[in-house]
Fold this sequence. Notes:
Blueprint: E1 6-9, E2 12-15, H1 26-30, E3 34-35, E4 38-43, E5 46-50, H2 52-66, H3 74-87, E6 93-101, E7 115-122, E8 135-143, H4 160-172, E9 177-181, E10 187-189, E11 194-199, E12 202-206, H5 216-227, E13 232-235, H6 239-244, E14 247-252, E15 256-263, E16 266-267, H7 275-288, E17 299-301
Parallel strand pairs: 8-9, 8-15, 12-13
Antiparallel strand pairs: 1-2, 1-7, 3-6, 4-5, 4-6, 5-17, 6-7, 9-10, 11-12, 11-14, 14-15, 15-16
Helix pairs in contact: 2-3
Amino acid sequence: MEQEAQVWLNGRFVRSADAKVSILTHSLQYGSGIFEGIRAYRTQKGPAVFRLPEHARRLVNTARIVGMPLQQTQKEIEAAVIATVKKNKLEECYIRPFAFYDDSRIGLDPTGKKVSLAIMAVAFGSYFQKKDVGIKCVVSSWCRMNSQILPPQAKYSGNYANSILASVEAKGRGADEAILLSTSGHVAEGPGENIFLVDDGKLVTPSKDSDILIGITRDSIIKVAESTGLEVEERRVHREELYTADELFFTGTAAELTPITAVDSRKIGSGRIGPITKMLSEKFSKIVQGGNDEYLQWLTMVNV
């Protein structure tokens, strides 16, 4: 019999069926929750969580940005994540810490409302079914919001309405995913992914001033690329550069490293997964599975 998922909720484990909130909960009604997306991978020494301290730190920083009085410290969040993976006996999984205003009183102002933290761990494979052959994207008519509208550096639930609109539009246009531009017209990111271009052997990715979320997988790929001798340039990227790139790919916790082979019906490069994308993807896979001693510090072992 399959074990029912256990959710860490405010310091104790409850069955997923018992992790209930009111339909009027503030963060459900108004999108005022904050969250993280984290992966644990199977290694020879058991499951390992990828870059756990960085993810926990970003959750704490998101709480600061949006003014949410999170009750747990970074170290307490890290310990709870490990406990959740262990409790659910998962070798590989996607982990979702979610902090929310656990209060059903009507009204926009969350001041004084109870803040709860839930952590879930679920079995999770590839986010994109076509990851092995590359996906097709379209540039969305929706722009990526900027810091004058909502904080791009926060993983704030309300931000993702922007992403959902873009993703739904892309699917309606026959694509696998969207690419959003900033309000200045420069390339920003996907709905839940950062984007990289390969241009004449150089790796290019939109910079922080392009209204992107500074992804942890993005940072990992930059470090790995530089270690191989690749030049990496972070700057503003024009839309037309997508069409003339030799290679394109997304990065993200869910997406990992996903090749893009077409944008707006234009074939990217050869229309197949390029050599630099393939090389970085293979290196990343080896790292997260504990097969590269140089990056073992990025893994937090669960069964230690």
